[in-house]
Design brief:
By secondary structure, the chain is mainly beta. It is built from 3 helices and 33 strands. The chain binds copper (II) ion.
Amino acid sequence: MNAMDVSDVGYDAFLINGQRETQIEGRPGERVRLRLINAAAATYFYVQSSTGPMTIVAADGPAVQPVKVDRLFMAIAETYDVMITIPASGLWELRATAQDGSGHASAFMGEGDLHPASNPPRPEVYKMDEMLNLALEEQEDDPRASLRLPRPGSPYRLLRALEDTTLPSKLPRRKITLNLTGDMTRYVWSFNGKTIAQDPFVMIKHGEIVELELINDTMMHHPIHLHGHFFRVLSGQGARSPLKHTVDVPPMSKRTIEFEANEHHDWMFHCHILYHMMSGMARVFRYETEPGIESGQESNDAHTTSLGEHSHDMWFTWGAASVQSHMSEGQLTLMNARNDFLINWELGWGRVDDFEYEVDTLYQRYFNPNLQAFVGARLTNDPDAENRAIVGFNYRLPLLVWANVSLDSEGDARGTLAKRFQVTSHLGVFGEVQYDTGTEWEWTAGADYTLIKNLSLTTQYHSDYGFGAGVLIRF
Ligand SMILES: [Cu+2]
């Protein structure tokens, strides 16, 4: 997966009310109130209507002062009510385009000649400009600045509640900062670097105001959602700050929200990209025990007593294997947020008299994206080596060069430098050079071309096994 991917999951289709194309009731000339609900598991949408600007009249339920937008950026779990007028003649389109530009869903109104809606420009996945521009435009005095971008941000600065939403000033305040953290390569998402399993609870007290500062340290948007409370999104509307239950936090940006802690027990707080939530980007806001109120822990309500599937980091497996004319190499991994069980192999039969193998079976501890340490066994039939125990670490150097250093029970040391470079979205090149005090120098270099998600063509030169080609399978 590319580090700059816009979305995590590639989908075959996008749907409105279960269909790629749907017809909305409404007669020519009629004014229609549409309730847009982003019910996707992992997709932000840009919504545009060919009838012209849409008038937002409600956000996440509560009404807001009417405000017009040309293109509406909708985070997962957000809802907006918008007003549009169906023109006297013609077939008009409301289009929801996936943020990554991979497709759209359409709802049509009226009848006659088609007036299509448009897509925003596709994202430039290899450039940071888009994120940077959005972050900068959101700082402008003009609250519409970020909405004039071809790929606009959320319209929060335009959202104005109908009434004063100020919270009682006599209540005590608690300020909590949460950093949105994650590692797309490893696919672990968290708050403050910890998954919900590692750090489940944020303790709050009934009768206080909780101010939350959400700082996004990642390269993705995250739709952050709180159960059971409406929060005020503090984005320049003062006393009329809008009430929402979900807020988009753009890459390398921050949002401030506040709410009155007027409930009891436990409330889920999580990224609404469901794969992020399940990988750990979630917390439980837990009310401290109050006299006369059963605490969440003692309650019989299963919802509050147990973290359920969030109580442990999820395990998953993946692997990659090349089968080539001269050799095979690959890896099988069983992992959760911090732990890996790995089998790495390199088998060769080109240019050597006998089939050779080296297989590492390792337990690896993941400290951070730059550092992992491992211990395990190395099995080989190399005449210059024998089966042995090994211990070592991986360290990520600048320019994404990986260094791997290990020591083994026979007293040999090994150092490896490896680099992979993605030339285009399909073509990658890689190289690796290794020195072992026992078996000495070894190096390899090659290229692969991605055909489909699970299959690439690959070609590789190896200093022991020579040149060959074959396929690379990911599973
Ligand atoms: Cu997320």
